[in-house]
Specification:
- The chain contains nine helices and 28 strands.
- It is an alpha+beta fold and about 400 residues long.
- The strands form seven sheets. It has a five-stranded mixed beta sheet with strand order 10-9-18-13-14. Strands 11, 12, 15, 16 and 17 form a five-stranded antiparallel beta sheet that branches.
- Strand 7 and strand 8 form a beta hairpin.
- The protein is globular and about 70 Å long.
- It starts with a strand and ends with a strand.
């Protein structure tokens, strides 16, 4: 086993110089602090591991670590790791181990609270799409706090330690936002987009009828990132059990950043220019028939996608493809604002391969709705080189930029 510090990995084993070195994990689900007594002095650092939970321990054996990898899916992986520390002569007592465990719990709780508060203060909620005005609205954290007056007492199906425990969630009623910003005639659903590009769609009728809530607090505390915060889409299962039949636990969306009413109109930015659907429809239209790499709401087999080549969009904007470099594709989810997570297409592939901005799908050439990641998605022909992978299939595409 290893501990992570910055960009380095360290073995979580006792050193010859510090035989009374023991490994401790705080029993929470975020920002796990590993307390390595003695080894801390040896390496000059604290250790952390993410998303782990220590269930049992003894003086000589580090027994069970439970990893929770949940991206709004009920996936739990149990990993059993046994590290024998039998060579140590100076072993702490059970009482000392308990003291260290309590220190770890207290420190981790402090870090969780600090990180959750800091993250909240930097978080916005964007409401866009087919609202009454059609204009995008960006609510800052102070505005969200002022609206977060609703309480929902319900189990959290993604809280794997006890999915039946009742929590008191406080947040903003989605119906309040819909009444305040409205929905255009003909809108039937609303899509919630998360930081990591996950998205869920609920019917407008249900959102107006039930106290479905964008929660910002859980039992009076900010919701940690690992438990869905800063904004967590919560359904009142306890009060309205019929909702559970219609919307399973995958509907509970973590770290919601956008609320899209209906589907937005097409708008692609390239430099200072913006193109709508009419502009794109004037370009040569291309159809590909591929098994798509999108995660949500698409058929599993091959699907016809219709759109325009990225190189044609760049030409329309007046941008000339360089001999080398990449085309950065930015999408709505905040994760793509991070340079490290941007999708960059090699210029050579953009020039030689059918990489599309898709706006329609299927035999009937239907517009791509928000519930499928529309109105614009990134699609790749199977003829493209291996450097374009499944992760390149992006939804909610908004901008293209040429990078050296």
């Amino acid at each position: 086993m290893t501990g992570y510090r910055g960009d380095k990995l360290f073995p979580l084993l006792p050193t010859p110089s510090y035989c009374d070195s023991f490994i401790w994990l705080s029993p929470y689900l975020e920002n796990w602090t590993i307390f390595v007594h003695g080894v801390k002095q040896y390496y000059g650092a604290d250790f952390r591991v993410t998303n782990a939970n220590l269930y049992t321990s003894s003086r000589n054996i580090f027994n069970v670590v439970k990893f929770r990898f949940v991206e709004n899916l009920p996936l739990v992986i149990l990993v059993t790791s046994i590290v024998y520390l039998g060579s140590c002569a100076n072993q702490p007592t059970d009482q000392q181990l308990e003291v260290w465990r309590q220190e770890a719990i207290a420190r981790n709780a402090e870090m969780m609270a600090n990180n959750a508060t800091k993250m909240q203060q930097q978080w916005n909620l964007v409401i866009q799409g087919e609202t009454a005005t059609g204009q995008s609205v960006d609510l800052n954290w102070q505005q969200i706090q002022a609206l977060a007056t609703n309480h929902v007492r319900t189990p959290d199906p993604l809280y794997v330690l006890n999915p039946h425990e009742i929590f008191d969630f406080r947040g903003v009623l989605v119906s309040t936002l819909l009444k305040q910003f409205g929905a255009a005639s003909g809108v039937t659903d609303v899509t919630f987009v998360s930081l990591n590009s996950y998205h869920v769609t609920l019917s407008l009728q249900d959102l107006l009828a039930y106290p479905i809530t964008l929660a910002i607090a859980k039992n009076g505390q900010p919701i940690p990132r690992d438990q869905g915060g800063p904004i967590y889409l919560v359904l009142p299962y306890a009060q309205y059990p019929q909702l559970k039949q219609k919307y399973n636990e995958s509907t509970w969306a973590f770290y919601v950043s956008h609320m899209v009413v209906g589907t937005e109109p097409v708008q692609i930015s390239v430099g200072r220019r913006k193109f709508n659907l009419t502009d794109l429809d004037k370009l040569p239209q291309v159809t590909i028939n591929e098994t798509v790499g999108y995660r949500i709401a698409w058929p599993s087999g091959k699907v016809k996608l219709h759109g325009v080549r990225i190189r044609d969009v760049l030409a329309l904007s007046g941008e000339k493809l360089p001999e080398q470099g990449t085309i950065a594709v930015r999408a709505k989810p905040p994760i793509y604002r991070d340079v490290a997570n941007q999708v960059r297409l090699p210029v050579s592939e953009v020039r030689d391969c059918d990489i599309l901005l898709a706006t329609r799908w299927g035999d009937e050439r239907q517009l791509i709705p928000a519930k499928m990641g529309g109105p614009v998605t990134l699609a790749l022909s199977s003829q493209c080189a291996a450097t374009t992978s499944q992760s390149t299939w992006m939804t909610f595409v908004e901008e293209l930029t040429i990078r050296p």
